[in-house]
Predict the structure of ECH-domain-containing protein.
Amino acid sequence: MLIELTKIPIPNASNPSQHYLRVSLNSGPVNALSRALLVALAEAISSANLPDSHVQGILLTSSLSKVFSAGLDLTELVLGANTPTTAAEYLAHFQRVVFLLASSAVPVVAVVNGAAPAGGTVLALVSDYKLHLETVADS
């Protein structure tokens, strides 16, 4: 499973179907943003922004303990991109996720619970709010 989606109920909400959506990146060992992970992430963000979704906010985090996301999957980008077109298509998936996060109708909170170099930092930066949790690696 590349991402885990969890509905978090909102206590005392006027509408009991309202909830937050926790989107946990789960693509070990470092949550590299593969094409498949980017597609799954785009689908989750898009569905959370549908009018009938009842999602009041998105919490973007990692299910891994020491890394939020290492960013672009360089193996897939370099070795999997046989042509410039393939590389451009891969980067278009990343750009789509960045656009969806930046333009989300519901607030996005990046709960950065580990290392976030390169593209991982971009995911956090385009979120509305950033929360860094101290990990063992930070100590």
About this structure: The chain has one domain: 3-138. The mean pLDDT is 89. Helices lie at 35-48, 74-79, 84-102, 119-125.
